[in-house]
UniProtKB/TrEMBL annotation:
CDD domains named among the record's database cross-references: Ribosomal_P0_L10e
Family: Belongs to the universal ribosomal protein uL10 family.
Alphabetical list of PANTHER family matching this protein: 60S ACIDIC RIBOSOMAL PROTEIN P0
Protein name: 60S acidic ribosomal protein P0
Biased composition (Low complexity): 286-295
Length: 318
């Protein structure tokens, strides 16, 4: 005989489970579970079982447990989770790579029909082509101003039609038409809203950044620091190379226009005194560039011709 558990015992068990997970895991994905069924959620749990734990529950219970656990442990970092527990959300505690876990969660999306009253998450476009519906169904298309024609006893849509726009509510006519056409335009699954990592909270878009993105952002930041340093004449590591180059140019300009000189300016002065040295310096490179095709032509010309019988030194009368 199954033993009934009271509500207070259920709350106590849930509190112990949540607190133990908070102590064990330092990485948490806060996910939205709108329109996610129990069967779909079970598959997600099974797919993440090796390295993650999915915990759902009422927001009030989760907030209460997190708040009391932060007070008991003295770890105020847990309090950053409380503002995130809004709406139909759940927690995925994980020890795996956050990017890989988010990609695994995204695999468990299922198609869903456009039910009346739903807010469309995407634009819904009805493609042109034969619908397979008989001519008596043309009233649906007329109500929605969809151009059609009768082809071989069935209704055919002439041009693609944007039936529902993102953010609009699905009406009864749109829902009925999509149902008749067998179109399930929406897909639902757990959607990652925020990422908690050792007390820090950030947007899930950060998980999509690659090493090239990070290098590019770092280079852009260094460039901005260098520009600011140069504009206010404040030395920094980012601006130091540019400052040295600019200082060298200034000193070189003084050396060129006056009798003052230093070793790095001697070669420039020599070139300015005798511009023909520029041509002499460039000549070897030009000769090398011309020598390659000339050598190839000579190799072709020097290919031995086929030997003839005359070259053997024999004759029919010898």
């Amino acid at each position: 005989m199954a033993v009934k558990i009271s509500k207070s015992d259920k709350k106590a068990n849930y509190d112990r489970k949540l607190c133990s997970l908070l102590d064990k895991y330092s990485q948490i994905l806060i996910v939205s579970a709108d329109n996610v069924g129990s069967n779909q959620l079970q598959k997600i749990r099974a797919g993440l079982r090796e390295h993650s734990v999915v915990l759902m529950g009422k927001n009030t219970m989760m907030k209460r447990s997190v708040r009391f656990h932060a007070e008991r442990t003295g770890n105020d970092a847990f309090l950053h989770l409380i503002p995130l527990l809004v709406g139909n959300v759940g927690l995925i505690f994980t020890q795996g790579d956050l990017k890989e876990v988010s990609e695994e969660v995204g695999k468990y999306k299922v198609g869903a029909p456009a039910r009346v009253g739903l807010i469309a998450p995407i634009d819904v476009v009805v493609p042109p082509g034969n619908t397979g519906l008989d001519p008596s169904q043309t009233s649906f298309f007329q109500v929605l101003n969809i151009p059609t024609k009768i082809n071989k006893g069935t209704v055919e849509i002439i041009t693609p039609v944007e039936l529902i726009k993102k953010g609009d509510k699905v009406g009864s006519s749109e829902s009925a038409l999509l149902s008749k056409l067998g179109i399930r335009p929406f897909s639902y699954g757990l959607v990652i809203l925020s990422v908690y990592d050792n007390g820090s909270v950030f947007s899930p878009e950060v998980l999509d950044l690659t090493e090239d993105d990070l290098v590019g952002k770092f280079a852009a930041g260094v460039s901005m620091v260098a520009s600011l340093s140069l504009s206010i004449s404040f030395p920094t590591l980012a601006a130091a190379p540019h400052m040295f180059v600019n200082a060298y140019k200034n000193v070189l300009a003084v050396a060129v226009t006056t009798e003052y000189s230093f070793p790095q300016a001697e070669e420039v002065k020599e070139y300015l005194k005798d511009p023909s040295k520029f041509a002499v310096a460039a000549a070897p490179a030009a000769v090398d560039n011309r020598a390659a095709p000339a050598a190839a032509e000579e190799e072709k010309k020097e290919e031995p011709a086929e030997e003839s019988d005359d070259d053997l030194g024999l004759s029919l009368f010898d």
